[in-house]
Amino acid sequence: MNWRNIRLIFMREVRDLLRDRRTLFMVFMMPLLLYPALGIGMAQMMLSYREKVRTVVVLGSEYLPPPPLLAEGAFAGRWFVTAKEVSQLEVVTPETVQQLEEQLREAADDARPQSQQDELTRQRELIDNARQLQVLHQKLQNLEQQYLEAASSGRDSDEANNSIDDAEAASPADTDRKEALAELETEIKQTREKLSDLFAASNVQVLILVPEGFAESIERTTEQIAERNVTEEGNEVSVPSLTVLHNNADQKSQIAYSRVKNVLALWEADILKQRLTAARLPESITTPVNPQSVDLASEQELSANVWGTIIPALLIIMAITGAFYPAVDLAAGEKERGTMETLLICPASRTEIVWGKFFTVLTFSCATAILNLVSLGFTTKYMVSLGGSTGGSIGRLGVITPPTFEAICWILILLIPIAALFSALSFALATFARSSKEGQYYLTPMLAVSTGLTVFCVSPAVEITPFYSIMPVIGVGLLLKGLLSSPDHSTMLIYVIPVLVTSTGYSILALWWAIDQFGREDVLFREAERFNLGLWIRQLLREKQATPTFAEAGLCFLLIMFLQFATMKFMQSLLGPMDLIADPTLMLKVLLTQQVALIAAPALIMGIMLARSFQETFKLYLPQVPYLLIGLTLPFFLHPIAIELSQSLDWFFPPLPEAVQETLAAMQNDSISPWLLLLTFAVAPAICEELAFRGFILSGLAHHGRLGIAIVFSSLAFGLMHMIPQQVFNASLMGLVLGLLCLRSNSLLPCMLLHFINNGIEVLRGRFYQDIQGAIPRENGFVTFTETEYHYHLPALMICVIVAAAMIYWLYKHPASPPRSRSEQLHA
Amino acid sequence: MIRVQDLSKSFADLKRGQVKALDSVSFEVKPGEIFGLLGPNGAGKTTCLRILSTVLRPTGGLAEVAGYNVMDNPAQVRANIGFMSGNTGIYDRMTGREMVEYFGRLYGIPENELQPRIDDIIEMLQMHDVAEMLGSKMSTGMKQKVSIARTIVHDPPVLIFDEPTSGLDVLVARAVLKTIESLKDQGKSIIFSTHIMREVEKLCDRIAVIYKGEILASGTVNELEEKYNEPDMEELFFELIRLREEEIDSPNNTGQNG
Questions:
Q1: Which of B111, B128, B155 marks a domain boundary?
Q2: Potential cystine with A361: which of A423, A682, B231, B237 (Cβ 3.0-4.6 Å)?
Q3: Which of B15, B78, B94 is opposite residue A16, by nearest beta carbon?
Q4: Of A341, A349, A543, which has the smallest distance from its Cβ to B87's Cβ?
Q5: Does the distance separating the beta carbons of A12 and B90 come in below 8 Å?
Q6: Sheet harboring B33-38: ordered strands across?
Q7: What letter does residue A703 receive in the DSSP assignment?
Q8: CA distance B158 to chain A (A)
Q9: Is B111 on the interface with A (CB under 8 A)?
Q10: What interface predicted TM-score (ipTM) does this complex get?
Q11: What pLDDT score was predicted for residue B63?
């Protein structure tokens, strides 16, 4: 690779993009304009928000006990934390209406200001509405009271009836009473709805109803307490209470109510204080425990928490956006403008071209992300200082300090692998596209998927685990979140290496794919064809080839995954209500059906429809004896290794979901026939999964003759189908061995054998663990075990590894003779 | 300088299955010679020239440029070739001079030689007006001039022009042909593909008529005219194609081509 060429291409592409108005806008202007614009918008919204005044109507304010709750058409200032809040709630009472009327009467007829006249009408309406509400509310309360009485009297008579004669049918009186109850119920419902409708139309946000004689009642109780005249039961006086009507589904009412609630709470506390003083009791009596909460979070940490949520999300989204447009321009755009061939005939190799272009995309991706962060940072800082000085809502966020120098370093370090991954992916996809427009279609799903992953990363409870640390995008996102927001970085540092290594690995894979795409004639010189679905399918069926194509194999995998996903709900409903103890075989039957209908059937149907040679597609040939022997013996050597591996990696994976644990428990259920277990967990998977994954999918993936890639992809597909991380890992490894065995023996039979034996050992081991453990002497050189865990000793394990490796190496070196000649021999 | 032997290329087509774009094509081009590749659209001219420029890989046969095999030494082949076709556009957001400079640097020309070389080419092609103009602002003729400048900036021994005059007005086309002629006088091996008979008669030392991936006839213009007893090049061309079509349609020959 010639770095001079890469640099030349890089410099040219950067200059080219910098001369493009669209890119400049996306990369530089957007972040610089977007956040300040958002900031201005937010500030304006907050200003207009503050001006809104909510209306509270108080009926019966004359019955309010001291200290005065209201003052001059509003709540008294002392019931608010800040004086400014007083003006946010307007209080209308019959008295305020009277005052207004008097003012108007005093003023000369011609001097009556129209606005005051309007105000009077408005307030009168409010009071009228409030009165109606009060009446309706009273009615509702009466109805509810009636209902309660009727219901409780009924219950008494029921009990009486039961004690006399259980078998006696319901008396006619009983039915009547039930009808009356039902009638009452509907009436209550109707009244409640009417009340709610009326409230919504009333323009009143909160209505406070003060019952008659409320002040006296409060005072009386205060006196009684002061005289120690109250006992638990003895207080016969029913204490009337304030009623506050509001509607929590309406935002205006909700906000007003939350304010009114605070006011009332403070007011009530004051009444309580008076009561205590009158009773000569200490004020502290109401707070016997009085826990003191001490928040140790420093300003630095509070802001770190804010940054930890915002920065990873922004970084990921902006890294994609920044990679997206340059990638389309550099790959699909170059095709579109007809300069691709000019570049291809220059002495730079295609790998050099890809590297040069990749570095360009990476640069723009990083630049976009950084510019966005900087712009956001400065806008936020400015907004906060603005909010802080005027005491607005942002001011409550506290002082947001900028991220520390260390945090900024981490951001920059982790930005590179994530930007590299997106750059390489976008570039590969954009290379495949014929035009810029097509490129954008391909890249949109990537944006959607990454956005989903980002949302997952910033969800509050999600933290980095060893498993997450090796996932693409998620690893980086969670690590960055942890580094920025957790007070103790040292716990995060152990994840830095795995995250960096795996994300670099993913980037290299993506880049390798991009280089591969760039080297393919059919990708570079794809001609525009009119796509006709009907014609395409007819072509597919008419001109089918002996084995399925790469794309058809991919489709088969997606179909299987889709079927699994689509039937998930159905399976759950089937398994949900079932009692495992009553019929433990039901789950096995479901699993069996799943294997046949959702895995084997799609592959077989696709095989019949899309491939000319059913035999070649599903490798239905008699294998040569050595391969059969390997299929027969290899699982016995692989099994200890697999057990040891999965046990030693147990810490790495998230715990198993409950449903899976249940299934695993079923394998140890003594009441189920071992034959049924073998059928479900060994025979069916061996046949069905092999037909699908080593049959159709592997044949299709190997169609172009790239066997290594075919094996890796088919085993990944095989792993992914197992859904649960542990099994994905185990099955992927097993898939590598099975894939190699299948391609080398050119027969599905050894694979089925290996698969069956491998699963069979596991089934029998679970089912007969007591017998097995009883049969093995405790002291032996090979294995020690507990009820659930087996630990093979190093010598035994070494033997297994050596034998397994030898067999796999032999497979690697010995492809079977081509099938055609052998089948001819068989016929002869 | 250019040696092509039994060159074949087939590719998969969604509608037609495996299509043979080139079928056992052989020819040779010596220094100081212009070789004309003559054929209708879709005959396989562009595929053949793309293989020579290493953009496509042959599925069979051999192709050598300046002694380097296109399969084994693609980088060397590209360094020794100047290639221009309807598909080698110029960058919109670069001036004519920057464009030529960029490719000059990619060809590894030292900076102190590059600038005088570019000045010479600008002088030679009379392209002072486009040197500082962005590609997006240029007319077709201006773009073609920049393309030629790009093709010859590294002074390659082999030059390939794939329909260089298509879409040009008579004046510019004439200038382009003059340039190619002067390059021949400098001793370059030149392949010139076209479907315009007049250009072939005027410019080419030897020609090959290519149709449906096969060479139907080759030789000097005079040789061909004598061989087929047809003084008019255009008539000769149609006659060759007609004969070939008859051959394909006749039932006893179908097996040969299928």
A1: B155
A2: A423
A3: B94
A4: A341
A5: no
A6: B81-84, B158-162, B189-194, B33-38, B206-211, B214-220
A7: G
A8: 13
A9: no
A10: 0.90
A11: 92
- Identify all chain A residues contacting B94, using CB atoms and an 8 Å cutoff: 12, 15-16
DSSP string for A626-643:
HHHHHHHHHHHHHHHHHH
C-alpha distance from A506 to closest chain B C-alpha (Å): 29
Residues B8 and B131 in one domain: no
* CATH number, domain with residue B10: 3.40.50.300
B107 and B67, same domain (yes or no): no
Q: Is the pLDDT of residue A549 over 50?
A: yes
Contact assignment for B105 to A8 by CB distance below 8 Å: yes
Q: Are residues B141 and B165 in the same domain?
A: no
For residue A825, pLDDT over 50 is answered with no
Ranges A572-576, A588-592, B160-164, most confident: B160-164
If we measure between CA atoms, which residue out of A167, A174, A182 comes closest to residue A153? A174
Query: In the 8-state DSSP scheme, what is residue A397?
Result: G
How far apart (Å, rounded) are the C-alpha atoms in residues B191 and B50? 12
Q: Is the pLDDT of residue A25 over 80?
A: yes
pLDDT, one tens digit per residue, over B40-95 is: 888 888 889 999 999 888 988 999 998 899 999 988 999 999 999 888 889 989 99
Q: How far does the CA of residue B54 sit from the closest CA of chain A (Å)?
A: 7
B115 and B15 in a single domain? The answer is no
Each domain of chain A, given as residue ranges in start order, spans: 3-39+299-524, 54-157+174-229+238-283, 533-817
What are the tens digits of pLDDT across the range A744-788? 888 999 999 999 999 888 888 877 777 777 777 777 777 777 766
Q: Which residue of B has its CA nearest to A6?
A: B106
Confidence of residue A162 (pLDDT cuts 50, 70, 90): low
Tokens 């109507």 map to which residue?
A57
Least confidently predicted of A610-619, A647-656, A811-820, B4-13: A811-820
Residue B254 pLDDT exceeds 60: no
CA-based nearest residue in chain B for residue A17: B93
> Taking CB atoms and an 8 Å limit, are A539 and B15 in contact across chains?
yes
> Is residue B140 domain-shared with residue B168, that is, in the same domain?
no
Tell me how close the Cα of A692 comes to any Cα of chain B, in angstroms: 26
Query: Across the interface, which of A339, A341, A348 has its CB nearest the CB of B91?
Result: A339
The percent of residues in chain B predicted with pLDDT above 70, rounded, is 94
Give the residue from A144, A232, A250, A132 showing the smallest Cα distance to A188. A144
Asked whether residue B142 falls in the same domain as residue B76, the answer is: no
B162 with B239, same domain? yes
Does the beta carbon of B228 lie under 8 angstroms from any beta carbon of chain A?
no
| A and B: number of Cβ contacts within 8 A | 70
CB contact under 8 A, B11 and A347: no
Model confidence at A250: pLDDT above 50: yes
Among A507, A510, A798, A754, residue whose Cα is nearest residue A636: A754
Asked whether A575 and A594 are in contact (CB, 8 A), the reply is no
CA distances from A607 to A101, A686, A689 (A): 90, 18, 14
Question: Confidence class of residue A821 from pLDDT cuts 50, 70 and 90?
Answer: very low
Q: Are A737 and A754 in contact (CB under 8 A)?
A: yes
Can you give the pLDDT at residue A392? 45
Interfacial B residues in 54-83 facing A (CB < 8 Å): 54-57, 74-75, 78-79, 81, 83
Closest Cβ opposite residue B106 in set A346, A524, A525: A346
Tokens of B114: 């590059």
Lowest-confidence segment of A52-66, A87-101, A207-221, A374-388 by average pLDDT: A374-388
Q: Do the strands B158-162 and B2-13 form a parallel or antiparallel pair, or are they unpaired?
A: unpaired
Domain that holds residue B162: 2-80+158-257
Mind telling me how many Å the CA of B239 is from chain A's nearest CA?
Answer: 31
Give B18 to chain A, closest Cα distance, Å: 11
Taken in order B149, B151, B157, B159, the sign of the CA dihedral is: negative
A712-716, A759-763, B60-64, B250-254: which range is least confident on average?
B250-254
